[in-house]
Amino acid sequence: MNTSLKGKLRMLAAALCLATTAAAQAPDDWANFARFEQENAAQTTAPRAVLMGNSITEGWIGKHPDFFARNGFVSRAISGQTTSQMLVRFRADVIELHPKIVVICGGTNDLARNTGYISPEHILDNIQSMVDLARANGIRPILCSIHPTGDYPWRPGIEPAQKIIRLNAAIRAYAEQEGIPYVDYHTPMAAEDGSMIAAYTNDGVHPNEAGYEVMERILPPVVDRLEAEIDRAAARAE
Prior knowledge:
CATH class: Alpha Beta
Number of helices: 11
Number of strands: 5
Strand content: 5-15%
Shape: globular
Oligomer: single chain
Order of helices and strands: HHEHHEHHEHHEHEHH
CATH superfamily: SGNH hydrolase
């Protein structure tokens, strides 16, 4: 298959993904509260951790549901969403589930301008606001890097690689300042030019099986350490 045809197929796949997300969303439900309304109502026990994110996380549970079940993780990720949309639905899809931990992984769709232009500073503001909401409700946050990306097939020409690196540095600095665990997916998955290593992706944006395997080695130890810290604090308080 020639390079031009591969590129066209990638753009078509991305467009279909966005179209499917839009079709599943109620006409005026900008944040897509409807997406998890039934699942939230059926959630009778508090999950260990809620993973709040976009298509990268949604695709993860789609490919490896056993990984989520085995670790006590629940996905509340919606394809195509920006941090603004994630923030709006954070109470319904995270706080009201009463998890110990929330894993926040977003920002790439902001850079892709899925809901219009937003500055890196305001992307970080949205992430910080989700952290504030979590902490105010007794939920411990974990922050994740944005995955490496050289180009968005559905929004070519933005050249996000270096923007992602700079925004990740800001997220990491904020996490260190606040004592929040930081999960670095970017470093082990990035090529020298800031794109995702080809072996880990089929479209340059989303991880494939091999990419998710990398992530599955990284996240659980971070959650385990934070949960142990939570349990020790609870024991001291008794």
